[in-house]
Write a structure and sequence with these properties.
This protein is of the alpha+beta class. It has a single domain, classed as Aminopeptidase (3-Layer(aba) Sandwich), CATH 3.40.630.30. About 35% of the residues lie in helices and about 35% in strands. The protein contains five helices and eight strands, in the order ββαααβββαβαββ. α1 packs across α3. The longest helix has 16 residues. About 25% of the residues are buried.
């Protein structure tokens, strides 16, 4: 797997067909992951995940798998989606097993830095479910501020200083 950048405990690598079994565990976890990503409760197949990896790589998308440096364990995926006009949307999913270990608080600033310094972004925005209080706290801790809210989502943004 090709490392693109790193933080203290995390290697950020290209998405890989090699990680499809890990991706499937994560995206098919209805209780800990799916409900935060939109709650489609749809089981994904290996073929669908392989196609997703191939598409992301072919398009050169800024999506990275996060791997623990010491153990080589899969943490989750993090992405800067749809970059245009100096802005992109942050997306992050962490496996249930790797949640509550500080990986989100470490990964998000590393990705923000990557977006601002390597991609030339000026702003990174995100939306999260209103009930995802834990994530909202992490995003605020990482410098995001809320700019809008509706019944389902909280919208947040961070700008380059």
């Amino acid at each position: 797997m090709k490392r693109i950048f790193e933080s203290e405990r995390i290697d950020f690598v290209e998405v890989s067909e090699q990680l499809v079994p890990d991706y499937l565990v994560m995206v098919n976890d209805i209780e800990h992951v799916d409900r935060f990503l939109g709650g489609k409760h749809k089981a994904y197949t290996a073929e669908q995940e392989i196609a997703w990896v191939q598409k992301k790589l072919a398009q050169g998308d800024s999506v990275f798998s996060m791997i623990v440096k010491k153990s080589g364990r899969f943490i989750g995926n993090i992405e800067l989606m749809d970059p245009q006009n100096g802005e992109a949307e942050l997306g992050v999913a962490i496996t249930a097993e790797m949640q509550d270990k500080g990986f989100g608080s470490e990964a998000i600033p590393a990705l923000i830095d990557h977006g601002f310094t390597r991609m030339g972004l000026d702003r990174i925005r995100l939306k999260t479910r209103t009930f995802n209080v834990r994530a909202i706290h992490v995003y605020e801790k990482c410098g995001f501020r809320e700019y809008n809210r509706d019944d389902e989502h909280v919208y947040m943004i961070i700008s380059r200083e």
